[in-house]
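Title: Prediction job returns without error message
Component: structure pipeline
Severity: low
Priority: P3
Assignee: unassigned

Description:
Job completed but the reporter wants confirmation the result is attached to the right record. Sequence as submitted:
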Amino acid sequence: MSYPTDRLYHSDHMWLLLESNDEALIGISFFAQDTLGDIVEINLPNKTSMISKGVPCGSIESRKAVSDFVAPANGVVIEVNEDLSAEPYLMNDDPYRKGWVVRIKLANPQSDLGLMDADQYKKHIGE
């Protein structure tokens, strides 16, 4: 399984990629999409909505189950991946690039996000 080292990981299997201007891209980890199986529908938070770390802000439905989309950080949604509405399988095919979920403006970019690096996340999931 692949876990890019340029991202941080939340214990609920979300990744966060820090970008410029105190923004971050968020998606689900390879482990999450692999566990869920074929993703068939995604309910995303609305643009301009506030998301809070550790709190569900959407859902991901696969052929096996429905899972919460849990925010890995506090922030305001500034963009959602509209492609996922028509092509939810992008989360399975390319969870770290085309399958990203939302872009947020971090609420407090100077604070420690309290997330794991790739090696810590691998230990968390037992790899």
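Comment from assignee: result matches the submitted record. The radius of gyration is 13 Å.
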